[in-house]
Amino acid sequence: MFKHSKKLLQGVEASFEAINTPLTQKNQILNMIKEHQPVKQLTKDQRAYFNRVIRVDQAGELGANYIYAGQYLVLAHKYPHLKDVLKHMWDQEIHHHSTFNKLQLKHGVRPSLITPLWTLGAFAMGAGTALISPQAAMACTEAVETVIGGHYNDQLRVLNTHFKNRELIEGEGNYEINEIIETIKQFRDDELEHLDTAIKYDSKKAVPYILLTEGIKNICRIAIFAAERI
Ligand SMILES: [Fe+2]
Ligand SMILES: [Fe+2]
């Protein structure tokens, strides 16, 4: 069944070449076909892990969205040179959050049951650190993005290892696994860019730096642990 899908895609692609189909139209049609490829069934354990990835990442991106909302609210007017920097990162978090919202709906994964806690806690963390100082807000970003970058790398390792009966990942494989891997890779890169931005804007000059960053890293680790399970 999967071999046929691959051949179908190759055939459609060859026809596009022959009739000079415009690139955007070609990609739209190819994506539609890929999305409707028969899905290779995941094992029960793989499905449980897959759902957990979507649940925790949706909660995490919701949290990130509210952290930046809190920072922006407190800092954007007082420190105009930070306005665009914060807005750019916040916009990316909004995009991450809405992507995981869509994945959650698409795969019928229930959200974390303590979502209101993530919303309030994240906003308080963003606004609270921003009220201390712009450097403290950046230290918060540095700590959060360090943990999230590592968390995404952990997930990529598992997805690439335990889902890598090759046919699940490549070619005729399972579109949903490829999709989540590509999404996480892209978001991981964005988070690491946020980490660099935080350092560039003096996160290391925050007082008290160690207390703030280590405290926030621990809060993030506990939140990840809880959101994966509850
Ligand atoms: Fe994010
Ligand atoms: Fe981020």
Automatic annotation (TrEMBL):
Give the binding site residues for Fe cation 2.
Answer: E93, E145, E191, H194
Question: What is one cellular component GO term in this UniProt entry?
Answer: extrinsic component of mitochondrial inner membrane
Query: Which residues bind Fe cation 1 per the record?
Result: E61, E93, H96, E191
Gene Ontology molecular function, alphabetical = 3-demethoxyubiquinol 3-hydroxylase activity; metal ion binding; oxidoreductase activity, acting on paired donors, with incorporation or reduction of molecular oxygen, NAD(P)H as one donor, and incorporation of one atom of oxygen
Q: Output the InterPro entries linked to this UniProt entry.
A: Ferritin-like (IPR012347), Ferritin-like_SF (IPR009078), Ubq_synth_Coq7 (IPR011566)
Q: Which cofactor does it need?
A: Fe cation
Reactions that this protein is recorded to catalyse: a 5-methoxy-2-methyl-3-(all-trans-polyprenyl)benzene-1,4-diol + AH2 + O2 = a 3-demethylubiquinol + A + H2O
Q: Please share the entry's free-text remark on the cofactor.
A: Binds 2 iron ions per subunit.
One Pfam annotation, family name? COQ7
Q: Does the keyword Iron apply?
A: yes
Q: What's the protein here called? A: 5-demethoxyubiquinone hydroxylase, mitochondrial
